[in-house]
Amino acid sequence: MSVTIDIAGLPTDRITVAISPLGELGMALHALAEPAHHPALQGWATAVSARLEPGLADRLCEVDFLWRATISDVFLPFAALPGQSLPGATLAEDLDLLDKLTDQQFVDAALEVSCGVSYGRLAPHILADAAARDRALELVSARGPRRACFAQRLIEDPPRIRAWFRRLMEDCEEAFFADTWARLRHQLAADARHKAELLRHKGLGPALAATSTAVSLDEEAGRISVDKLTVGHARAAESGLALVPTSLGGPHLLVLHRHGWRPVLHYPLAASGMAALSSVDLLSRRMAALAHPVRMRLCRYLARGPYTTGELADAHGLTPPEVSRHLASLRKAGLLTTQRRGRYVQYQLDLGVVARLGGEFIEGVLR
Fold first, then answer.
1. Cα separation of 116 and 134, whole Å?
2. How far apart are CA 261 and CA 235, in angstroms?
3. S-S: 94 plus which of 22, 169, 251, 314, CB 3.0-4.6 Å?
4. What is the dihedral of CA 359, 47, 59, 92, to 10 degrees?
5. What pLDDT is stored for residue 273 in this prediction?
6. What pLDDT, on the 0 to 100 scale, is given for residue 354?
7. Regarding beta strands 241-246 and 15-17, do their DSSP bridges make them parallel or antiparallel, or are they unpaired?
8. Contact 329, 289 (CB under 8 A)
């Protein structure tokens, strides 16, 4: 599974790398709402949460669906504006871009997570289509009365709610984000410059490879693939492509691929010394390989030391060919190491790989 971006015919000068204050604020709000997703940020999240005024905290809870499960596209409004290649240089400028979205664009993006609005393809707009509006309100009612009330107010009076949301973001800047952004923006800007230099001097492939090992480029097919546990598609030839780094977003690797918007790869800065990410396909193979009861029994032996096929067959009452088939599955999943002793091959469980599976699973489902 992956999200793909078709870049056939996309000129290099339509690819931009830039930082986004509003995008980083969205990531900050997510980290505050879901600290378990970001263990390295728990100290920061605890300190910020402790000093939030109750009134602001309550207002944030009212619309936390915009950043809790996933980050709403309203935090990257430049992607919806034709001819707007870059985010704003300040949060105020980014919010000015948000104000330029039509009510239709804002409502669809804001309610996408809660109301099951179709993503990545042309679909009826909530404000323009009565059936889509009724369906959205029906779906959001299952999320609780508070969220349903907010959705109703948003649909009935988009300008008022949009002004309310802007004030909320401005209050977040005053309460905590101005300090956070002042600390992060230089690091983000340095990373953006580095990726832009790679793009200029070495091409798109190396620039994408430097964002994440989960991002790959098939130059012959003219396609970028982002390895994720979801399926999506976007075209960048007409609108362009943007790369936006985030310091607070890891392990999330987000791909904005809303229909009619510019595709955006919102990638986390790589942690120092971080190992290459496992593909979701490899993660699936490893978990499937370990799930078989016979292979689990074999792993009990292989975790304690190296064994040959014959030794494992004798110990478990299996034939050597049966053991070989199970070992082949474990080897294909990268879970075994081998060493030759004369004419015998000994197998052993790679405990380091198995120990990382829990973290890789969490990273895979959060990516």
1. 12
2. 9
3. 22
4. -90
5. 39
6. 87
7. parallel
8. yes
In whole angstroms, what is the distance from residue 266 CA to residue 282 CA? 23
Q: How many CB atoms lie within 10 A of CB 151?
A: 25
Q: pLDDT tens across 299-330, in order?
A: 988 988 899 999 999 988 999 999 999 999 99
Residue 272 has a pLDDT of 40
Separation CA 41–CA 250 (nearest Å):
10
Alpha-carbon gap, residue 78 to 68, rounded angstroms: 21
CA distance 207 to 185: 20
Residues near 262 by Cβ (< 8 Å), separated by ≥ 6?
Answer: 78, 79, 80, 236, 239, 240, 241, 242, 256
pLDDT of res. 120: 62
Quote the pLDDT of residue 121: 67
Residue 193 identity (one-letter amino acid): R
Query: Half-sphere exposure of 339 toward its Cβ, with a 13 Å CA cutoff?
Result: 8
**Spans of the chain below 70 pLDDT:** 113-121, 271-278, 367
pTM metric for this prediction? 0.80
d(CA 286, CA 329): 9
Q: Among 268, 329, 274, which residue's Cα sits nearest to residue 302?
A: 329
Residue of 287, 309, 262, 349 lying closest to 81 (CA atoms) = 262
**How confident is the model at residue 274, as a pLDDT?**
43
Q: Give strand pairing partners of 215.
A: 226
